[in-house]
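Figure 2 data, in text form.
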Amino acid sequence: MAAQTLHRSLRRGIALLLLPLSGATTLPEFVESALPGVSDVVGVALFVAAVAYLVGSLGREVAAAADTPL
């Protein structure tokens, strides 16, 4: 159980770090891409993936808590 908790915390930490990085990659000063628009697509993809993971993780935690008797 402790290893599973550690892995979940690590994944959540990475997702939280991706949120500001996804916005930073859309700045032309941060990433200069040879292909126009690639940094925008990468930024949006990182943001959507991080938010989707965090929302799903929260949903799983709430569902697990709902099954726990008081």
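Caption note: Helices lie at 2-24, 38-66.
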